Every structure is written in C-alpha cells, then in structure tokens.
Amino acid sequence: MNEADYEHAVNSFYEGLYRFAFSLSGNIDDACELTQETFARLLTKGGQLRDRSKMKAWLFTTLYRIYLGWKRREARHPHLEIDSVEDELPPVTPETVDTLEAEAVSRSLLALEERYRVPLALHYFENHSYREISRLLDIPVGTIMSRLSRGKELMRKLLIAKSIGVERKVISINPEIRRN
Amino acid sequence: MNNQEARLILQAYRPDGQDASDPLFAEALEQVRRDPELQKWFAQQNSLDVRVQALLEVAIPVPRRLKSDLLALRKISRPAPWWFQPMKLAAAAAVVLLLGLAVFFLLPQKQTQFASFRETMARYSAQKQEHIVFESHDLAEIQQWLQGQGIETSFDLPAALPGRSAQGCRVVDWNGRRATMICFMLKGEHMDLFVMDRTGLPDLPDTSAPQYAKAGDLMTATWSEGDKIYLLTGENKELLQKVLQQTSI
Prior knowledge:
Radius of gyration of chain B: 28 Å
Helix content of chain A: over 70%
Structural class of chain B: alpha+beta
Distance between the termini of chain B: 56 Å
Oligomer: heterodimer
Strand order of the largest sheet of chain B: 1-2-3-4-7-6-5
Shape of chain A: globular
Distance between the termini of chain A: 52 Å
C-alpha cells in the first residue's frame, strides 16, 4: 500500500471507524486502539486488497474482527433491560430527540444489546446499507433488517425513558442550582 | 404488504435517499405513497434518523490526536511485518545473516554470558524471516502452544502489554537452552519479550529494576524475577520505559 492510498484511507474513514469502535467498546482508549490496530493491519496486509473500492468494507470488517478477538477474553458489554417498561412509554418524535443531549443518544446506543448495537452503529456511522451490514457481519439480510428495526425501536424507547428521567430530576432540584 | 411489514423494511432505509432505487424497498415505498398515515410515520422516521445520526457525531467526538497518530503509523511501524511478506525478505535475511556473522566475529571474545544472551535475543528480535512461528493475538492460545512445545509458562507479562497486542511467539535457542519469545505490536510499536530460566546466567545482576542497553539497532531492557530472566526489545529506551512503567504509549 503506497502512502497516498494509506493517507486517503485515513482521511476518508478514520472518524467513522473510531465511532464504530467506540460503539463496540464503549470507551475512548479501546476505540483508539481498535482504530489504530485496524490501520496497522491495513499497512501490513493492505497489499492483499486489490480492489480499492472495497476499502471501506475491508476496514470495518477488520475492525469488527479485531474486536471479536478481544471479546473472546473480555466480559460482555453491559446492557440495560428495558422490556419491562417499554409498553408504558410514550411515542418518540423528532421534538423529543431535539430536547435530548447528544450524550443521551450515544448512551442509548451503547446500552443496546450487541446484536442490535452493532448493525445500528454501522447504519448510523458511514451510512452503511443493510446489504453492506449483512456482508460485513456475515448475517442474513432479513436478520439485519429485523435487528435494525428492533434496534431503532429499543433505542428510541431508551431515549424516551431517559427523557422522562431528566424531566423528573429537573423538577426536583432548585432552579439556582440548575444554573450552576 | 401490510403497513407493519412496510415499517420493518423501511427502518433499514437510509434517509439520504441512497436506497431509493433498491428493489427491496420498492414495494414498501409504494405503500408509503398510497397510505398518508404511513407517509407521516416514514417522514418522522427519516427525520429522527437524521437527527440521531447528527447527535451521535457530536456525542462521540474523535480524539484530536487520533488522525496524526494514524498517519504517523506508516512511519513508526514497519511498512509490513516480516511474517506477512516472505517474498520480499530473502535479501533482508541475507543481510541479517551477514550482520549476525559480522557481530559474532567482531565482538570481543570475552563477552559475558549476560551480554551474549542480550545480543542473541536482540538478533532474534531483528530477525525478519520466520520472526514468529505461531501466529495468534490470543495469549491463551500462545500459552497453549508454548506448553505444547514443552515450555513452562508460569511467567508474568508486563501489565502494559495487553494480550490483544500479541502477534505470536516462537521458541528460540541460546547456547543449547530454550527461551520463549512473544512478539507484540502495541499501537504500531514492535516489541519482543524473551523469557528464560535464569540459572544459566550466573553473571546476571540480581535486580528486578530493568537495565537498559543497546544491542544492535534495538534497545533492550532486562530484569529478573524469581527464577526467570526477562528481556524486552523495542525501538528505543523511552518506549520500553513507558511499557515497563505501565504508562500508555
């Protein structure tokens, strides 16, 4: 792999890869290391990648495989159990999302079970199509569609749950303190 | 197709319209055009997706240093690990062999056992062809492989060398004795850790504090613990110090 190709790959994909890595690992250090190891492998094995149009898929697949290798030895990512409350939650609207902090959205994604979190992260970061996600994760298209649908539903319900929690907290504290 | 089925399919639709011509969405999109309620739901979903996508980008900021670190990788890491480019390495192996012979003949004859061990391990570390014999990122697999070679594996790794940075291992020889070599690639930095029973090195200083010394082109850090001698090789002293002091590199 020549320098120009490598630099192009970094410029084009490092942000999406880092965010995907963060959605997998849930912390900055591991996300950086995953991203770096992915690009280190591009440097060492990039010669095998003859079709440069497959660079994006290769990088995301490689990162995911590195993560799976890590995961064999590490504890599973914790997730929230929301099934017990989901039926009581009001519908999600764009206005609801507007009132939420970006961090709450990210936490909702990270809180999902991995089978929903991974395809959803790929869907949101770098705009992967359902077919690309299917190939990347080696999971049938129908399963991916169903996980995207269920994942979005769960994530939005988590957002609403957080939104309600925030509202209650705001009411209970002193307005003076809120300004600080 | 009913609305429920259409909704499931349309959740995979990307709001920027890239999927508009995908036949899989055609029927669901047709349903959207026919049904005002579904149309309203679909518009809302797209709007939500755009918003969530934007918020996620804000929520997960990319560390400022990451890009420069990644671009630096091509300079600080070897262009291609040797074990992946065997075809290119015959010439390099010949050079290493010549260098090895030169070092052997030029070194003072009265070299201490400890210095001899250090030089030999550094040569293994610099060896490009068949640098490792068993390739794995999993320390448990590496341990299992070493045990299969009759190596006793009850030694401690520096805590700053996470298992996932391991690349593989081999068993090397020093004066008829066997030493373990585990290869690591941590954030683009190549390091090899050698472990051997220390009883064969009577002149080894009895210290757990690492001793740093240059050997060939590499820096080495050597320390002992229990009945083992440990030797770590890397590009420079600063890198080895960071690893041994358990700080992030």
